[in-house]
Structure formats: structure tokens, C-alpha cells
Amino acid sequence: MAIITEYYLLLSAAVFCIGLYGILTRESALLFLMSVELMLNAANINFVAFAFYWGNLTGQVFSLFTMALAAAEVAIGIGIILVLYRNFDGIDVTEAATMRW
Amino acid sequence: MAGAYDFVPAIAALPFVAFLVSLFFGRYMPKRGAEAGIIATAGSLLISIWTALTVAGITGSATSYNENLYTWVAGVGDGALTLNLGVLVDPLTALMLLIVSLISLLVHVFSLGYMNDEGETGLPRYYAGLGLFTASMLGFVFSNNLLMAFMFFELVGLCSYLLIGFWFRDDGPPSAAKKAFLVTRFGDYFFLVGVVGIFVTFGTGLFAPLTEGGSVAAESFPVIADQVLNGEASVETFGFGAQTWFTILGLLVLGGVIGKSAQFPLHTWLPDAMEGPTPVSALIHAATMVAAGVYLVARMYGFYLLSPTALAIIALIGGFTALFAASMGVVKQELKQVLAYSTISQYGYMMLALGTGGYVAAVFHLTTHAIFKALLFLGAGSVIIAMHHNENMWDMGGLKEKMPVTYWTFLSGSLALAGIVPFAGFWSKDEVLFEALIHGFGSEGMLGPIFLLAYAMGLLAVFFTGFYTFRMVYLTFHGDARSDTARDPEPVRWNVKGPLAVLGIGAATVGLINMKPVAVLTGAEIDFLHKWVHGPDEGGWPAALSTDLVTYEELMDGVAGISSSYPIGGEQGTLLVSAALSLGLALAGVLVARSLYGVDEPTEHTDRLGGVKTVLMHNYYQDEYQVWLAQGVTVPLARAADKFDQGVVDGVVNGISSVSLFTGSRFRRIQSGLVTNYAALMTISLVLLLVVFVVFGGVVN
Prior knowledge:
The complex is a heterodimer. Chain A has three helices and no strands. Chain A is an all-alpha fold. Chain A has a single domain (about 5-90), classed as Helix Hairpins (Orthogonal Bundle), CATH 1.10.287. In chain A, helix 1 (about 5-25) runs antiparallel to helix 2 and helix 2 (about 30-55) runs antiparallel to helix 3. Chain B is mostly helical. Chain B is built from 29 helices and four strands.
């Protein structure tokens, strides 16, 4: 028997909140990146769940796009982290706070 | 075939080219640019003669010309204004072109003696200035619309500034130049408002109607104004009666005239302008600049005739200025100062003539005055060369034997200025006064007494004119030499004597062009100038342009209410009495001058005037009063306006910006630079937004 859609949504919300929590509390840029990945995947779960619920493929196609986007984002994010490491001798995001006003 | 009219723009273009040539290549020329100016003004003179002959019908059939040559702003849509540059040639233009180019040519030649031979520096600048001055005046003369006239009018003012301040290393000239520019600009400001007013009211600034193929293509503003008064057309008059509005417009334009023609109360720049080189003074006083104002009134005379009030004001200003300036000329010690006040006075006569309906008389006096005043200034220049630039008449004396050419020509000019028969000034001044007299007796309402008052002032000024003119002649040329330089004056060359001789003969004979008294007494048809501006009775240029005497006389009679009346023994009797009065007063002035100063060793008699002398020497405190106006009224006013601007206007603007600056500096503290904080803010905001949606159900009314 199929699992009902609400559970998927609950799972997605939980994963999203874990990602958000990570972003709000962590200081390491690498963990940031991972948290963002978590949030993106939470959205993906939602897409697939709704696609399953409505019985069409639109959401699944969307989640494919999201994955591609996430891959690109990770590439850029890793690049930023590398530069961050080179300039600040670490990947603590609270260190790089000079470019504001 | 190209006729003379096709070359009219070249009359102004030639001196303009001379201006450019002198400015850029003058320093490489042997005479430092004078060649260009002389060739160009000679060319202008030739074309002017050709034009005059064509207007006279001798070298062509078209006796007038009025065309737009260039449109520099084309209006789009209904009622839009189109601004053109164009050429209007009628007998008045032709006459003025002749005068201006002739005087300018002579002044250029004279400058060879006055500037080159004296070893002045900066001559290319000088000749460039002369060229531009001549070009702008000539352009002004043949302008066919008011805006073009205004533009050249301003150029004339600019050139006067450049030339009066030619010796800019001294203290006096730059200050005099600034004064001339500012005072005339003050008048021109009203002129500009008047130009805009006339364009807005009539939609055109044309002086004379444009005809195309025999029919009228565009009306001129004086004609439209006349039609409005006759009820044949209507224009926007901004809540005024039509005639009142036309009076206002006329008076606004008159502001520029008063400034340029140095009429009371804006005459103060002219005596100071004597700081410039003497040939420039001759040019300014005789043909360009100062003549421009009077010429403008004559040019749009059809408009002024529609407003008796404006005419009365012109007549009063003219008569008053004539007397006022003449009285100041009486006490001056410097040769050029006397001449300066005589110029103001003589232009007063022209304004008097225009105000009292003596159009021919005004044009006549403009002509004769141009000749004899140019002569007097050039003669004064010759004396100044001889005296090593000492202008004080009390250091002169006895120059008669040492410089006979200068003396005899100067005498000719002085007799003309004083108005002694048969020299030029007599005929023209007599006609001015005669017209004022008969129109004073013949006009309706208040105009009559006003004209008579102006006439009385003009008549009294004749005495003063005779007096100061011959005081000047006696002090300069007669008696014993009163200084070493006067005993051994520097000789002058042909380039000084030549122009003097031409003008000296002119001053003696140019009056013959309009010997009205002789014409009236003998019945001989010798009032040529009268015929010149009168035009043929039927058709011809008067029908095309309506700038002829017949039109003006109809307007004078019909609208202004000016008509002639001969109080004493008919026309001939009145004429004789008027002529006898002015000649008698002039002679009395000359004789008084002779008895006071025509002795071997003249002494100053001004002390006998007592307190009046101080007033006259200080020019009736006009300068002081204008300085007070500037410093006592305008400066505090400007300061108050500055306070308002700095405090209130800028205060509001600065207040707004400092409030945003302050709040910005506080709010930017939110920007911590920590990604975590931004994320938290975004999350909290999103949650709040969701809460709001939940509470209000997603619909906000």
C-alpha cells in the first residue's frame, strides 16, 4: 500500500528545517553548503510527492532541473569556499564580513 | 539676374569677414587688420550705394525688398511661431545703410592715424571689434523682424563693451565698458520682454508685410495692430484694452531704445564710454549703437503711432533729455565729454521728433547728426593726437593756426551742431522743432500741451547747444596756447585729414537734402528726403510695406490724433517764426560763448553759477543715484533673496537629504555582513508574512 502524501510533506518539512537550522547556526561554509543542499532536496521531495499525488510527471521533471541546478550551485559554492579559504585561512563565514558598508 | 537686393546680406557679411580676418590674421598684416576692415566697409558702402540707387528706382524696378532668408526655428502645429532671419529694404533702410557704412569706412581710415600711427598694441583686436561692430549694426538695420533686430541689437551692445574697454590695462576703460554694457542691458531686458510680448500677441515680429506673388503672405505686427484697433482683427490682449496693451508693448520695447540711445534716465553710460578710443566714440555716437535705438523706433513707427500715450512719453523723454544733457555739457572741461553730452542731447531731439509725429524730421536729424557728430569726434581725435592724449580744453587754445584742416572741418561740424544756417544741423533741428510746434498746437487732448512742453524744452536746449559747442571751439582753437603741447602740437597725417575733409563738406551740405523752409517759402520741390520716405502716391513700395509717410500720416491723424495747426500767420509765418526762434537762440548761445571765451586768455566762468555748477559737474548726481539704487536697494534685496534661497529653498532640500542620510546611517547597522543574520532575517520575515496571510486569510482589503 502506498504511503500517503502528507508523510512525504512532513519529511520534506523536517529536512527543510534541518537545513535552515544548519544555516542559522553553523559557521563553517562547507556546512552551509550542505544545509543548502538539504533545503533544496526538501523542495525536491515536495515536487516528487505532489507529482505522485496528482499523477503527472511535471513535478518530477522539475526536480530533475533542481538537481542540475544544485550541482551547478555546488560547483560555484565550492569555488567560493576555496577563495574564502585562500583569503581568510579558513572557511568561517563570520570572518568574511567586511564587504557591507 | 541678381539685383542689388541679393547682395544686401553681404553688406553685413563683409565686415563680419573682416572681423574674422583681423582677429586671426591681423597680426601678420602690415596695418594689423585695418586693411580688411577698410576693404570690407568700402565694399559695404558700394553695395549700400547700389541698394540705395535700386530703391530709388535707378538701377532696378523693384523699389523695396522684404524676404525671409533663413528659418532657424520652424514652428510645428497651429499657431506656432516661426522664427526667421530676413532682409527688409525700404528707403529708411537704404539711407541708414549708407550712413553706417560711410561713417564706418571713415572711422576705419581715421583709425590708421589714431591707433596705428600712435603705436598702439592689440590692434588686431581693435579692428576685429570695429568689424564686428559695423557688421552687427548693419545687420540690425536691414533686419526684417523684431527678434532678428533684437539679436543684432545685443551684438551691438557686446561690441561696444569690447571696444570701450579696449585699453583694458587702465582702470577707467574696463569699468566704463562694464557700465555701458550693464546699463544698456538693463534697458534691453525690457526690450526682450517686449519682443516676447509682441510675438505672443501678434504671432509675428515682421516690421513690414511679406508679399508673395502680389498677395500678402504674412502680415506685419504694426498692420495687425492697426486692424485690431479698427475692429478688423483680434488678438490676445491679456485682459487689457487693445490700445493699452499696445502701449505697454511699445513702452517695453522703448526700454531698450532708452538704454541704447542714452536717453534719460539710462544715459549715464555714454559719457563714461568716452574712455574708449576716439574713433570708437565716433562710431558709437554717429552711426552704430546710439543710433540703433532711434532707428528702431523709426523702424516700427507704425506701431508707436497707434499709441498716443507712448508717443507723449517718447516726446517728453526726448525733449527733457535734450535740455538736461545740454545743460551738463555747459560745464565740462574735457573735449570728448562735451561731445558726449551733445550726443545725448541731439538724440533727445530725435526722440522728440519721433514722439511728436515728425518722422521725416527724426530721420533727417539722424542723418545730419551722424555726419556732423562723426566729424566732431574725429576732429576731437585729431586734436587729441596733437595734444598727446590730453583732453582737457583748458590746456589747449590757439590750435587754429597750427592745424587748419582740423579747425575748419571742426568748425563746420560745430556750426552744424549748434544749428547755424546753412549747415546741416540747422535744417534738421529746425524741422524737428517746427514739427513739434505745429503738432503741439494741432493735436487733440493732452497730447497738445505735452508736445508744447517738450518743444519748449527742446527750444531752450538750442541755446545751450550753441553755447557749449562754441565754448568748446573757442577754448580749443582760439586764444593763446595754454600749454607746451598746445604750442607745439603733433602734426596729423592724411589718414586723419581725409575723413575730416569728407565729413566737413558733408556737415556743411547734407542739410541740403531736405531744406523744408526753403521748399515751403519758395514752393520749389527740394525736400528730397521727404519725398524719399514718402514714396509714390499710388502703388510702389508703400503699398507693399506700409512703412511710408502716407500710411504714417493717416495713422497720426486717425489713431494718435496728431494734426498740424499753424498758430502764427499760416504755414509760412509759423515756419519763419520757428526758424527765427531756433536760429536766434542758437546765435545767442554762440555769442554768449564768444563774449565769455572768445578772448585771448579765457578764464573759467563756471564759478559764477554757484551751487548750480556743483550739481552740473556731478551730472545732477545721476551716477550717485544709480549707484545708490544698486548698492542701497538692489544689494539688500539680492541679499534677502539669497537668504530666502539659502535658508528656505535650500533648507527644504538639504533637510530632506540630511533626514535620509541620518536614518540611513542608523538603519545600515542591520547590515552585519554575516550570512547567518541575513538568513535569519529572511526566515523571520517569511514566517511573519505567512502569519499575516494566515490571520487575514490571504486577502487584504
